């Protein structure tokens, strides 16, 4: 929350597009961004700090409240971006967290046949797949398999050559505790994009931001015209 207090830190990376879960509403603030949420202090924000234009896809289904399909245009590119904040669901336990992402991917499967980037605060790691504690429509392993069948892979895992559940660079520190690290944030990209670089913010660098997450930064390059996307 309070992204306005962290934006300067993010801008130091010269990003093209930033996805911020648990983001405050910016009301009538200028700039190219979209925001979705029921609580003005806590929704999901998508910001363009470049020539990319953002538009909510007309296929958006509010049943998947924080799985937001967006049409991105710019630099002679057109692709779909999914901004995801995987949430709890007290009405349908099978669609909690990773179950929500799995069911949304099934619903939006036709959009995945086109160039796509998926940025997700998953609140989930593969280490919890076997014993989730409640029924799910699908776990992270099943989600990765579905995406893989579409040629969509995780930027982090391909770049660092690590398996799901064996990540060495955490993206989340529970209760701001360095001794409770987890990797629960992901960037997936279709085969239309080369993965040029991936970086994860460090605990020491971000501890004063009061966020329990650190940024996952992926630099992608479109294979068609080599325009870089970060």
Number of strand elements: 14
Helix content: 10-25%
CATH top level assignment: Alpha Beta
Strand content: 25-35%
**For the residues shown, what is the average pLDDT?**
89
Category by helix and strand content: alpha+beta
Count of the separate structural domains: 1
Sheet with most strands: strand arrangement: 4-5-6-7-11-8
Backbone CA Rg: 17 Å
Total of helices? 5
Sequence stretches where pLDDT stays below 50 over 5 or more residues: none
Please write the string of helix (H) and strand (E) elements.
HEEEEEEHEHEHEEEEHEE
Distance between the termini: 22 Å
User: The CATH topology is what?
Assistant: Deoxyribonuclease I, Chain A
Principal-axes geometry comes out as: globular
Describe the biggest sheet?
Answer: 6 strands, mixed
Say which CATH homologous superfamily is assigned: Endonuclease/exonuclease/phosphatase
- What's the architecture in CATH terms? 4-Layer Sandwich
Describe this structure in words.
This protein has 230 residues and is of the alpha+beta class. It has a single domain (3-229), classed as Deoxyribonuclease I, Chain A. The protein is built from five helices and 14 strands. It has helices at residues 7-11, 98-107, 140-149, 155-160, 203-206, and strands at residues 17-23, 32-39, 42-48, 53-56, 67-74, 77-85, 116-121, 152-154, 172-173, 181-182, 185-190, 193-200, 216-222, 228-229. The strands form four sheets. Strands 4-5-6-7-11-8 form a six-stranded mixed beta sheet. A three-stranded antiparallel beta sheet has the order 1-3-2, with no helix packed on it. Helix 2 (98-107) runs parallel beside helix 3 (140-149). The longest helix is centred in the middle third of the chain and has 10 residues, at 98-107.
